[in-house]
Amino acid sequence: MLTLSNLQKSKGSTHRRKKVGRGSGSGRGNYSTRGMKGQRARSGGRVGIAVRSMRTYLMRIPKSKGFRSIHPKFATVNVRVLNSLFKDGDKVNARILLKKGVIMSMENGLKILSTGTLAKKLIIEANAFSKEAKKKIEDAGGKAIVVSIKKEVPKKKE
User: Which among 6, 10, 34, 104 would be 20 to 30 A from 54, CA to CA?
Assistant: First the structure.
């Protein structure tokens, strides 16, 4: 039974006192771990000294990794990708592109960019088009339809 009379410190919780000033062979000789000169090397020194600088203060603060922009970015798709994935006359929108694995998310909207060529007549629904992309789609005989981003509003509990 554990009582106050038989309490023992756990193993490894106590350490031997550091013996300083016992010769240079001890590893803690000469300046006795205090360095050379200065207030902190003297007896009675060190108390009340503001040692920390702004840099050491900043180094102690935990930093959050990464960055999240307050301006969400569109998921982007080039017209050459649409040309290779879809047949003539197909309808293209964010949901279809998500199913095919072309975009990772459709919550911030979809923008069609102009890299590549488009030779197929496609009906494309997106939240934004670059000027050049819109021109390429219409030149191929397709339609570029701008749709608004729908944000789902959470329902209130009654």
Answer: 34
Compute the residue count for the chain: 158
What are the sequence ranges of the domains in the chain?
77-146
CA proximity to 137, closest of 73, 92, 75, 70: 92
Give me the CATH topology for the region 77-146: Ribosomal Protein L15; Chain: K; domain 2 (3.100.10)
Q: Nearest CA to 91 among 47, 134, 126?
A: 126
pLDDT band for position 11 (cuts 50, 70, 90): very high
pTM of the model: 0.54
Mean per-residue pLDDT, 46-56 = 68
pLDDT at 84: 92
The sign of the torsion formed by the CA atoms of 26, 29, 35, 39 equals positive
- Output the CA torsion sign for 94, 105, 137, 128: positive
